[in-house]
Write a sequence for this structure.
């Protein structure tokens, strides 16, 4: 390969990411200057937040500029290094974006990965997905033994791990909310959830009342919107809501309003938003907590790898159509 | 007076409390049985929550039943006691409801008030109003010196005190939101707020951006709905929202949905609901904190006393039309 395929943001998407929002170009492979590192992109993480960064407004990171490469986390391998600490062949975790080659400039965040770890695991269970679930449960939910725990996006990367961690921490009842009978079957039969609501075919509010007769003690929210509202309507006194994601709102033109916020008062409940970005210094703590659970077979996780950079846009869209289970990864190239 | 005037709930109100939702009756003055206390009602507290209790659904207390006296907090004086701890002439704080005479049965909450306190103060600055503001600021807001503090219902009983307490605790900027230029003038000129937005004539979202250029660190919410949404849209990182009341939703047929809850994630912010009911054991702590501030003239509060039990329904409605400043009290009778 002598050219660098890059997928640039040409226009702000309205809803799903369509081809006319993108500019697929082939450019020369960049030449690293002093202090730079040139890397070959191996795998890209497909996350709801990729879509947030495409919006006009800045979020917790600045919006991707029109004409810039689409931002995405991933793993890349050093091809040529002109910076101390990076050696040819090193695997590096960072934000390569949707392209074949990543020129790591001075101020980019990136860390060299110790050898012996699976790349797919680094982008799922030991990456932001697993670590988000870990800190959501450990730091935000304040989950106590015997409590009723509900998670939306239950068959997704974060939700599937959060529900299992809740069960491991002693939750009395763990209820998932997911988008198909097949997903519901997976989280109940394979992951050990007590129940799962198919939000596409069932009345979520009514089912939450049935499945959580004493109210929801902890709700781990990955979706926002109507499902968040249904959870707010059925809180136990002292409930906690961990606001992890709001995927139902990320590409909505007019987001559905949440009407039951007054229940936060009636139930003396708390909603707390969190971002994995704030836990960068504590990643190792989460990985040390997750690894033995994976090793003992107590924590299952699903990863679907899609081969080819060209499929990045459609794969991102699958997060929003619900056509996936577990963590989605785009494989760009094989390690050297 | 030989009869007990009582205002009963005849039907659930739709919007404001209209006369056809009420049944005004005159009954014999009840005769206390063993363990009962008969009291003459002196003053009633007029609170947004009175309207919440009239709804079909239970809230943090059971809904008022159709045919029962309308529930309200207040101060009453013992006429005849058949219970230890209550002596004729004692002033008692509790939930007398909209009536002339209150028969305190065995399981009612009520506490005898030490002598020397003004009844109106007991229902405002040293009652649930002042104490709610106190614990909201002390326990929920986690306010730090220099922070930007916003309070809605700023000219109301709770809001006017909360804003002053925030200033006393060192908030850098205190912004109120109220419903008339006169109210805005009062909170700025008399209470010392830095600014006040008239939500009836100004664009609250735009004004919050102007007045809080670094975002809102703490939002003390008394109203919910659209104004809560405007605050959510302009949070600083790590913001806290104290959910104290949602008066805009209490008699709304279809509450306005809040669309910016995803900002809780982007800004790693917290919303925490609280109820003064949970602080009954700590009332003294609040009163001890408030009294010196009142004594030193650092805390202003406004009380409007409406004379006559018969005016209780219209006075309650004034909370929702915004036609009042500070705390509203209905005076039923003079102490003996």
């Amino acid at each position: 390969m002598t050219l660098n395929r890059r997928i640039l943001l040409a226009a702000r998407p309205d809803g799903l990411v369509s081809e006319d929002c993108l500019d697929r170009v082939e450019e020369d492979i960049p030449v690293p200057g002093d202090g730079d590192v040139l890397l070959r992109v191996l795998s890209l993480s497909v996350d709801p937040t990729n879509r947030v960064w495409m919006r006009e407004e800045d979020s917790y990171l600045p919006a991707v500029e029109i004409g810039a490469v689409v931002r995405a986390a991933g793993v890349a391998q050093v091809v040529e290094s002109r910076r101390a600490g990076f050696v040819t062949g090193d695997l590096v975790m960072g934000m390569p974006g949707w392209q074949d080659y990543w020129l790591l400039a001075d101020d980019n965040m990136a860390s060299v990965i110790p050898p012996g770890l699976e790349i797919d695991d680094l982008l799922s269970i030991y990456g932001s997905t697993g670590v988000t679930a870990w800190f959501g449960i450990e730091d935000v939910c304040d989950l106590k033994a015997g409590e009723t725990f509900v998670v939306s996006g239950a068959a997704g990367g974060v939700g599937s791990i959060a529900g299992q961690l809740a069960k491991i921490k002693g939750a009395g009842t763990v209820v998932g909310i997911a988008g198909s009978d097949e997903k519901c079957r997976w989280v109940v039969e394979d992951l050990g959830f007590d129940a799962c609501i198919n939000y596409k075919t069932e009345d979520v509010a009514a089912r939450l009342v049935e499945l959580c007769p004493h109210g929801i003690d902890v709700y781990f929210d990955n979706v926002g919107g109507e499902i968040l509202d249904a959870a707010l309507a059925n809180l136990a006194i002292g409930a906690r809501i961990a606001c992890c994601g709001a995927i139902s709102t990320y590409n909505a033109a007019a987001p559905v309003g949440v009407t039951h916020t007054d229940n936060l008062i009636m139930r003396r409940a708390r909603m707390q938003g969190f971002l994995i970005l704030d836990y960068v210094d504590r990643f190792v703590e989460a990985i040390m907590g997750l690894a033995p659970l994976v090793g003992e077979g107590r924590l299952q996780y699903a990863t679907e790898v899609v081969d080819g950079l060209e499929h990045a846009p459609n794969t991102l869209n699958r997060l929003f159509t619900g056509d996936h289970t577990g963590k989605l990864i785009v494989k760009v190239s094989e390690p050297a």
